[in-house]
């Protein structure tokens, strides 16, 4: 704590890419995770995600929405199966309001490492889940 009683912001040095077409969701998750010390980048659809994954430094985690224009999350996962993505970047977790078993199974078959249902998790739980995925205490 500093002399003013405010806790200083700690940098975690973990890079996360948030892919969501909803600007409110992107901004909310970016603020939540940035405030926790993560380095955050965003993309509005799967096409932007693929471009970032090809040109940006490695990401430790990708949070990928499913329902998006241009290229949705499932199409993006399918394309990532055919690229050298896994050698460079960390896990992909679907972050979606869709939580049906068929959707979860399809995402897993396409290479998703996990699934977070937006409507079933509080901001604190999401932060805890991400810290657990990235092995941060």
Automatic annotation (TrEMBL):
It holds the Pfam family Response_reg. The modification 4-aspartylphosphate is found at residue 65. Keywords: Phosphoprotein. InterPro entries: CheY-like_superfamily, Sig_transdc_resp-reg_receiver, ST_Response_Regulator. GO terms for biological process: phosphorelay signal transduction system. It comes from the Bacteria. Gene3D superfamilies: 3.40.50.2300. Residues 15-133 form the Response regulatory domain. PANTHER family: TWO-COMPONENT RESPONSE REGULATOR, TWO-COMPONENT RESPONSE REGULATOR ARR22. This is Two-component system response regulator. It comes from Candidatus Cerribacteria bacterium 'Amazon FNV 2010 28 9'. The lineage of its organism: Bacteria, Candidatus Cerribacteria.
């Amino acid at each position: 704590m500093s002399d003013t009683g405010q806790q200083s912001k700690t940098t975690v040095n973990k890079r996360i890419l948030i892919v969501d077409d909803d600007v409110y969701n992107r901004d909310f998750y970016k603020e939540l995770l940035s405030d926790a010390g993560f380095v955050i980048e965003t993309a509005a659809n799967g096409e932007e995600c693929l471009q970032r994954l090809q040109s940006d430094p490695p990401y430790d985690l990708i949070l990928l929405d499913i329902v998006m224009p241009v290229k949705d999350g499932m199409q993006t996962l399918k394309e990532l199966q055919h690229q050298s993505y896994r050698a460079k970047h960390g896990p992909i977790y679907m972050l979606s309001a869709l939580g049906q078993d068929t959707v979860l199974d399809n995402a897993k078959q396409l290479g998703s490492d996990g699934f977070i249902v937006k409507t079933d998790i509080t901001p604190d739980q999401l932060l805890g889940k991400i810290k657990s995925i990235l092995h941060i205490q």
